């Protein structure tokens, strides 16, 4: 049985952990991941560096992982409604999916980097992949399954679709795609998926 003191301590530890992750995320979103150091985080949350390492023994990589996992949870929440748009056509469902993904990546560029570009301590594409990481993929696959004429191989189509949307994000952010054609890109991708 957990005592009230132990429960309070656990709650305080979780709150401090959330504070550290929130500070890392805010700093990364405003100044980039290079600015996220244990020293800067310790200053931001007004605790010592050993306190940070007490919560995140593997240091910055573990903190980046925590930010990435938060991002995956938020991305899954952003994508999930696209599969369930009432009275929507297939084109509208897939467009909602693409738009939600691109909007998330644009609003949270540093979090997106943590999710897809920086080293993290979670496995991908394996049985050990955390459920929250799989949830975004499942939101994409679920939208494809609900089409009037779904693809014959939903998992592979979902992977290719995800790769295409991620490619749009990466190429836009790198300045390789001009902003002026974003709507045309979205419509082209939608038409490639909806037959």
Blueprint (SSEs and pairs):
Blueprint: H1 4-31, H2 38-45, H3 49-55, H4 60-79, H5 90-107, H6 109-116, H7 131-145, H8 154-173, H9 182-193
Helix pairs in contact: 1-2, 1-4, 2-3, 4-5, 4-6, 4-7, 5-8, 5-9, 7-8
How is this structure best described in words?
By secondary structure, this protein is mainly α. The chain has two domains: 4-57, Arc Repressor Mutant, subunit A, CATH 1.10.10; 64-193, Tetracycline Repressor, domain 2. The protein has nine helices and no strands. Helix 7 (131-145) packs across helix 8. The longest helix is centred in the N-terminal third of the chain and has 28 residues, at 4-31. It is globular and about 55 Å long.
Question: Which properties best describe this structure?
Answer:
195 residues, mainly alpha, Arc Repressor Mutant, subunit A, Tetracycline Repressor, domain 2, 2 domains, 9 helices, 0% strand, globular, TetR family transcriptional regulator, Homeodomain-like_sf, HTH_TetR, transcription regulation, MT1864/Rv1816-like_C
Largest sheet data? none
Mean pLDDT score: 93
Total DSSP helices: 9
How far apart the termini lie comes to 57 Å
Number of E-state strands: 0
Helix content: 55-70%
Structural class: mainly alpha
CATH fold label of the largest domain: Tetracycline Repressor, domain 2
Radius of gyration: 19 Å
Reading off the top of the CATH hierarchy, the class of the largest domain is best stated as Mainly Alpha
CATH superfamily of the largest domain: Tetracycline Repressor, domain 2
Please trace the helix and strand order, writing H or E for each element: HHHHHHHHH
What CATH architecture of the largest domain would you give?
Orthogonal Bundle
Number of domains: 2
Which blocks of ≥5 consecutive residues have pLDDT under 50?
A: none
Tell the overall outline: globular
How large is the share of residues in beta strands?
A: under 5%
Pfam families: TetR_C_33, TetR_N
InterPro entries: Homeodomain-like_sf (IPR009057), HTH-type_TetR-like_transc_reg (IPR050109), HTH_TetR (IPR001647), MT1864/Rv1816-like_C (IPR025996), Tet_transcr_reg_TetR-rel_C_sf (IPR036271)
Protein name: TetR family transcriptional regulator
Organism: Isoptericola halotolerans
């Amino acid at each position: 049985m957990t005592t009230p003191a132990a429960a309070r301590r656990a709650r305080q530890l979780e709150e401090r952990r959330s504070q550290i992750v929130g500070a890392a995320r805010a700093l990364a979103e405003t100044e980039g991941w290079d600015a996220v150091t244990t020293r800067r985080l310790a200053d931001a949350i007004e605790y010592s560096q050993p306190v940070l390492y007490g919560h995140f023994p593997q240091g910055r990589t573990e903190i980046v992982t925590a930010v990435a996992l938060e991002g995956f949870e938020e991305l899954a929440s952003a994508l999930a409604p696209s599969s369930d748009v009432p009275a929507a056509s297939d084109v509208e469902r897939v467009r909602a999916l693409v738009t939600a993904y691109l909007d998330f990546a644009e609003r949270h560029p540093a979090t997106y980097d943590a999710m897809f570009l920086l080293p993290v301590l979670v496995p991908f594409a394996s049985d050990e992949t955390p459920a929250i990481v799989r949830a975004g993929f499942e939101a994409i696959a679920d939208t494809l399954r609900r089409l009037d004429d779904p693809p014959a191989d939903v998992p592979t189509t979902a992977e290719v679709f995800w790769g295409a949307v991620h490619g749009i994000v990466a190429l836009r952010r790198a300045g390789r795609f001009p902003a002026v054609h974003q709507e045309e890109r979205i419509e082209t991708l939608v038409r490639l998926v909806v037959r």
